[in-house]
């Protein structure tokens, strides 16, 4: 009577086969393959012709020749192969007489013959190990690591390698050091300024630090005294939420944009609109002024950013490439001069002259709602619901993540003391050390009397 064959799944059979194969070859997998002389010579010949054909005709330098002959006694048996007049092994000088300066052609340097293979090996053994080899030895796995990862049968053979209780190559691990953040004094709430009847969606401080301006969902723009917090002026003209304001340091102009698709230029000497910039097909979510030239850049829900000549109102460039709302834009004097963040989770660095994308950063997984430039370093930060990320100009090389603000980051601000502030839609503010990314303070803002909890979010910050 035949015995019933035990059935196994394909998954079990495959792993059994893999285990048998592993057990068969585990003792030999670390052994090097025996060296084949013919293959080695062929490999060297191919490498000489492929990598060094351009310099094979050059004579050996005198200082290199002297260094060879001054090797220790262990390599004094360095012999040179006698290959006759075989042109394959000759390296001849090509300098016409008289020779070039500093390189005299003599009977020794006219023709140079390659060293024999035995001489090459003895020379290699006598030379000190290279930096790469030292690093490889320093990070090589020790016998203890092998003993930890192989089976019981192989452990005895691994233990026999150990000499006097010590291993030949011990694993040297560098303990990662956490950089010490700079100490920053804690921030405290100084004053609450009330006056707007809707969300404050934008804020800008004038270059002289005398006053600041805010734009709100109540469709007004208000100018406040910075020291006392008193209202100085209210400007009306937008018919929808004011999403962006900027004060020029080159002229007495204030620029604003809103969800009514309008971009306005206000003359602060007359407190009235003197220019309109028409072109966006949907709500304008942000704007910024170029620091050195009379250029205004706006970004919109129509997935574009537009570059305007302030004086002529001409649309110099329409920056296309984003596939969703462009939520934030920043300008700087150095390249790249324009940086945009979008709800398509990407950041784009733009070439202002060509009007084209210079680099696209795709590290974020959520909408990028804010970008801030460091006032002194050649770096910037971007805020999203997944992380705050720091980048290096000009190519947008990633520096580090600032994790811990688990909310939708609506706004970022940074000052010259290295303090980065992030504001979220849940009413929380986190303060970070810019260099190390250390979160040294967290603040939860109190809700304004009469407002809802959902209205406590931070939409714009300036430090």
Automatic annotation (TrEMBL):
<comment type="subunit">
    <text>Identified in the spliceosome C complex. Component of the PRP19-CDC5L splicing complex composed of a core complex comprising a homotetramer of PRPF19, CDC5L, PLRG1 and BCAS2, and at least three less stably associated proteins CTNNBL1, CWC15 and HSPA8. Interacts (via its WD40 repeat domain) directly with CDC5L (via its C-terminal); the interaction is required for mRNA splicing but not for spliceosome assembly. Component of the minor spliceosome, which splices U12-type introns. Within this complex, interacts with CRIPT. Also interacts directly in the complex with BCAS2 and PRPF19.</text>
</comment>
<dbReference type="InterPro" id="IPR036322">
    <property type="entry name" value="WD40_repeat_dom_sf"/>
</dbReference>
<dbReference type="InterPro" id="IPR019775">
    <property type="entry name" value="WD40_repeat_CS"/>
</dbReference>
<feature type="repeat" description="WD">
    <location>
        <begin position="319"/>
        <end position="360"/>
    </location>
</feature>
<dbReference type="Pfam" id="PF00400">
    <property type="entry name" value="WD40"/>
</dbReference>
<dbReference type="InterPro" id="IPR001680">
    <property type="entry name" value="WD40_rpt"/>
</dbReference>
<keyword id="KW-0853">WD repeat</keyword>
<comment type="function">
    <text>Involved in pre-mRNA splicing as component of the spliceosome. Component of the PRP19-CDC5L complex that forms an integral part of the spliceosome and is required for activating pre-mRNA splicing. As a component of the minor spliceosome, involved in the splicing of U12-type introns in pre-mRNAs.</text>
</comment>
<dbReference type="InterPro" id="IPR015943">
    <property type="entry name" value="WD40/YVTN_repeat-like_dom_sf"/>
</dbReference>
<dbReference type="InterPro" id="IPR020472">
    <property type="entry name" value="WD40_PAC1"/>
</dbReference>
<feature type="repeat" description="WD">
    <location>
        <begin position="235"/>
        <end position="276"/>
    </location>
</feature>
<comment type="similarity">
    <text>Belongs to the WD repeat PRL1/PRL2 family.</text>
</comment>
<dbReference type="GO" id="GO:0000398">
    <property type="term" value="P:mRNA splicing, via spliceosome"/>
</dbReference>
<dbReference type="InterPro" id="IPR045241">
    <property type="entry name" value="Prp46/PLRG1-like"/>
</dbReference>
<dbReference type="GO" id="GO:0071013">
    <property type="term" value="C:catalytic step 2 spliceosome"/>
</dbReference>
<dbReference type="GO" id="GO:0000974">
    <property type="term" value="C:Prp19 complex"/>
</dbReference>
<feature type="repeat" description="WD">
    <location>
        <begin position="277"/>
        <end position="318"/>
    </location>
</feature>
<feature type="repeat" description="WD">
    <location>
        <begin position="193"/>
        <end position="234"/>
    </location>
</feature>
<keyword id="KW-0677">Repeat</keyword>
<dbReference type="GO" id="GO:0071011">
    <property type="term" value="C:precatalytic spliceosome"/>
</dbReference>
<protein>
    <recommendedName>
        <fullName>Pleiotropic regulator 1</fullName>
    </recommendedName>
</protein>
<feature type="repeat" description="WD">
    <location>
        <begin position="402"/>
        <end position="442"/>
    </location>
</feature>
């Amino acid at each position: 009577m035949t015995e019933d064959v035990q059935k196994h799944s394909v998954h079990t059979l495959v792993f059994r086969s893999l285990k048998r194969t592993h057990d068969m070859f585990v003792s030999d997998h670390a052994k090097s393959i025996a060296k084949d002389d013919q293959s080695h010579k062929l490999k060297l010949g191919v490498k000489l012709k492929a990598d060094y054909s351009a310099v094979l005709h050059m004579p050996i330098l005198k200082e290199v020749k002297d260094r060879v002959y001054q090797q220790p006694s262990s390599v004094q048996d360095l012999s040179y192969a006698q290959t006759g007049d075989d042109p394959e092994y000759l390296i001849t000088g090509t300098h016409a007489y008289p020779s070039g300066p500093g390189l005299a052609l003599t009977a020794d340097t006219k023709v140079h013959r390659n060293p024999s293979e035995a001489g090459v090996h003895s020379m290699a053994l006598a030379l000190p190990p290279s930096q790469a080899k030292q690093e490889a030895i320093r990070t090589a796995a020790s016998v203890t690591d092998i003993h930890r990862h192989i089976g019981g049968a192989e452990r005895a053979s691994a233990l026999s390698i150990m000499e006097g209780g010590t291993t030949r190559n011990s694993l040297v691990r560098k303990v990662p050091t956490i950089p010490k953040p700079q100490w920053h004094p804690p921030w405290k709430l100084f004053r609450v300024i009330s006056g707007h009847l809707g969300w404050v969606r934008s804020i800008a401080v004038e270059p002289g630090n005398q006053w600041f301006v805010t734009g709100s969902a109540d469709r007004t723009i208000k100018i406040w005294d910075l020291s006392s917090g008193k209202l100085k002026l209210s400007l009306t003209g937008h018919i929808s939420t004011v999403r962006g304001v900027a004060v020029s340091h080159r002229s007495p102009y204030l620029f604003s944009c809103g969800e009514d698709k309008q971009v306005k230029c206000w003359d602060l000497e007359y407190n009235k609109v003197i220019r309109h910039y028409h072109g966006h097909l949907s709500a304008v979510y942000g704007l910024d002024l170029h620091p050195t030239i009379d250029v205004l850049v706006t970004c919109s829900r129509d997935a574009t950013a537009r570059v305007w000549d302030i004086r002529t109102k001409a649309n110099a460039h329409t920056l296309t490439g984003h596939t969703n709302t462009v939520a934030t834009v920043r300008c700087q004097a150095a390249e790249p001069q324009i940086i945009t963040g979008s709800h398509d989770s990407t950041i784009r660095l733009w070439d202002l002259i060509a009007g084209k994308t210079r680099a696209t950063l795709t590290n974020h997984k959520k909408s990028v709602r804010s970008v801030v430039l460091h006032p002194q370093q050649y770096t910037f930060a971007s805020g999203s619901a997944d992380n705050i990320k720091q980048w290096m100009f000009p190519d947008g090389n990633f520096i580090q993540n600032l994790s811990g603000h688990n909310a939708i980051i609506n706004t970022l601000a940074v000052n010259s003391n290295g303090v980065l502030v992030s504001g979220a839609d849940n009413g929380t503010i986190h303060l970070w050390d810019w260099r190390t990314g250390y979160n040294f303070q967290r603040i939860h803002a109190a809700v304004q009397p009469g407002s809802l909890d959902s209205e406590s979010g931070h939409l714009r910050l300036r430090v």
